[in-house]
Amino acid sequence: MTSVQVDQQHDGSGAAGAASAEGEGYQRGLGARQIQMIAIGGAIGTGLFLGAGKAIAKAGPSLILAYAIAGLVIFFIMRALGELLMYRPVSGSFAEYAREFIGPFAGFVTGWTYWLFWVVTGITEVTAAATYMTYWWDIPQWVSALIFTVILYGANLISVKLFGELEFWFSMIKVTAILGMILICAGILTIGFSDAGETASMTMLWSEGGFFPKGIGGTLMTLQIVMFAFLAVELVGVTAGESKDPKVTLPKAINTVPWRIAVFYVGALIMILSVVPWTHFQPGVSPFVAAFEQMGLGIGAAIVNFVVLTAALSSCNSGMYSTGRMLRDLALNGQGPKVFTKLTKSGTPLVGLTFSAALMLVGVWINYVAPGKAFEYVVSFATISGMWAWIMILVSQIRYRRAVARGEAPESEFKAPGAPFTSWFALLFIGMVIVMMGIDEGARVSLYCAPLWALLLGVSYLVLKSRNPENASFKR
């Protein structure tokens, strides 16, 4: 939705949903079932299946607490986003809200940074998928990365309805796998079958060096990995412009966040670390695969490896979906090349999708040059760029509340409980994570890259403002 359409909406010329549908030109092909599974699957990817191995090695069982606290913060962020979505559901989502409540430059930075986040995340997921392939075949990571990138690009040329259906089944596989792992671990703890049955016990959560074997500092240093695991939960906001009934489906999807985190992260880690000692896990190895191998269930490890491969490809597929939409939102607001506004007959932003997929091929080069460090590099940069979107969501929601109090914006039907205090708490928590990233030598690379990206965006915005001042202003 452009700024002109926002003016019309506040003038009472049309409902938010109608303006969104007509102004953006997308097809509302995503139903409640698909939105729910996209929301669930969005938070289940390489951060849990691959990155958790490194986090367990760094923090031990206390990683469970880190996921629980970070999960609470994520819920605050999602409720803030939900309040904004019910105020105005558009596919531009938080970039639109930043543009409206903070300023045009904030919208410009948010749109391009979130686009970059998904390009980098696509590289991350393809890297992870290539890593999983080495479990079966000894082939170069860059070969697998190239093949997967090309296949997923082709899959994203389909209609949004088919995209939603594919994501539904991708997410179903991930959910089934985690629930299966939890049930198997529960069976080992109660019945005692498999090689791990004799030693499995809940006491392993504190008997192997204590609950904080690496100290509180070790737990804090995993926050970057933990927050990366939750990146993409905000994807439901991007789907708002293509949801059949956003005012019904989106609140339901957002309210599932607490139990998603409780089951798929906290619950899964409690069960796994009760069956297999935390000292058996190592960086670069999926904790799910390692757990099955420790149990003596070799075929189970192969099955889980296939599931986590599916999870990585699913997340990359979602990334390709969102990049095209974000580029089109920028173009519609005059903050990106007009060519990105073009849609196919099926409602797909072909040019933006193609441009983004081409840049994701950089992941192939990273896997070729430094296959061992590829995942660590892209995780660090994806985390800082993804957290910018969360910061903008929280700040926009705080500013929106002030606009409502002044009578300048209608009140949302889905108010965030505890806001704005919960939003301020979440902002402080994100700030602490960024400090931890600065301390961590491996994650520090992202903080080096962030100023360069900010400088590039600043110069680009000045050029935009000099050429077309109208697109660098936002009138409510």
UniProtKB/TrEMBL annotation:
PROSITE patterns linked to this entry: AMINO_ACID_PERMEASE_1 (PS00218)
Family indicated by similarity: Belongs to the amino acid-polyamine-organocation (APC) superfamily. Amino acid transporter (AAT) (TC 2.A.3.1) family.
A GO cellular component entry from the record: plasma membrane
UniProt topology in membrane: Multi-pass membrane protein
Keywords assigned: Amino-acid transport, Cell membrane, Membrane, Transmembrane, Transmembrane helix, Transport
Amino acid permease/ SLC12A domain segment(s): 35-467
Pfam families to which the protein is assigned, alphabetical: AA_permease
InterPro entries: AA-permease/SLC12A_dom, Amino_acid_permease_CS
Protein name according to UniProt: Amino acid permease
Superkingdom: Bacteria
Record bears the keyword Cell membrane: yes
Compartment(s) of residence: Cell membrane
One example of a Gene Ontology biological process annotation: transmembrane transport
Organism from which the protein derives: Streptomyces ficellus
Residues passing through the membrane, by range: 37-57, 63-81, 101-121, 141-163, 175-196, 216-236, 257-276, 296-316, 350-368, 374-395, 416-439, 445-464
